[in-house]
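G., the chain you wanted modeled:
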Amino acid sequence: MAGLNQTPSGERVHIGFFGRRNAGKSSVVNAVTGQEVAVVSDVKGTTTDPVTKSMEILPLGPVVVIDTPGFDDSGSLGELRVERTRRILEKTDIAVLIVDSTEGMKQCDLELLALFDERKLPYVIVMNKSDLGEKAGEKNAAAWGVISGDGKESGFKAPVVKTSAVTGEGIEELKNTIAALKPAEKEIPLVSDKIKEGDIVLLVVPIDKAAPKGRLILPQQQTIRDIIDAGASAVVVRDSELAETLERLGPSARPALVITDSQVFGKVDKIVPPEIPLTSFSILMARHKGLLEEAVRGIAAIKKLKDGDKVLIAEGCTHHRQCGDIGRDKIPKWISDFTGKDIQFEMTSGGGYPSDLTDYALVVHCGGCMLNEREVGYRVKSASVQSVPITNYGTLIAHVHGILARSIGIFPELEYNRDEGDEQ
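Predicted structure as tokens:
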């Protein structure tokens, strides 16, 4: 289970490198990472798609580095590349603008800076190719109000670093500058704030043909680690051994909490006594990523679905789908059976989340374990701005099984209108 020894991409700081074609983005990326992450060429437009790489960079720690296509790309294909670059901004925690110091700031650089500011992104401006002579570039940048004083401050309230990817000048300074912009650590844990030292937490993990062979899925791994960090004990069982395990534990070792895979929510609810709190991995992950409050609010849209409505099933990861897949098969069936309506279902995965959601009556999102908090926030905000309700897998599954009130009982701060109905 090598994944237990690696920081998941969704928990890593995402650093996006942006700029015009041939400004030296890929060269700077390679210099910062110390690896040949991106292809380098004198030909403009060599980077045609975003290049993503998970790695460790001191003094930053675990990060995801993203090298983007030139923002000044042209033609119909260029427009697609630029749009992909814009989409990368939605998952970027720290932006790095690479400017060719021999040419200075151009209009598209200013457009990128405006996009950074609009999204409230921390960013650094890099005046690259300092080894080629930068007087004209410095003059140009100063005219735009970017560099002032000793070059450490800018009119855009961002640090400015002079670099040469060829000589290595400024690369260490750039790494330290990026590290200083690192966002604060996430304050919302998975479950450790809901348990105490010495507690027993029972995890229900069904093993079927859809389960990855020889390993646990990411939310299960992360939950186990969070329980251990809290000084509590994690007991992992299959749903088929749940009743026997509870009997063996007995009253003296009663679990403080049971966490189940959402797919067996209904079965587990019938086995676990009502006095023992019950929730799911998906619900915990949704709270961890900042999605749960909106997911609970959005569940009211289920009872309003009509014949012909479209529902978007959105997953943050890409995986091989088998018969009985939760997103493709099970959730559409549960919604159709629950509503009794003829619903149209569409599915997206990975980075394919549509910008226009107005055709949908509801978005049902996964827990978001493979997405960072910023991208989950973008997806939630996008739905909210377009007045499209959004919920998530665990919340919906609990709702259609009539146990949503129980499954979010450990979160009394959530506003949930039981009149909207999860009682059958």
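The CA atoms of residues 119 and 386 lie 18 Å apart.

Shout if anything looks off.
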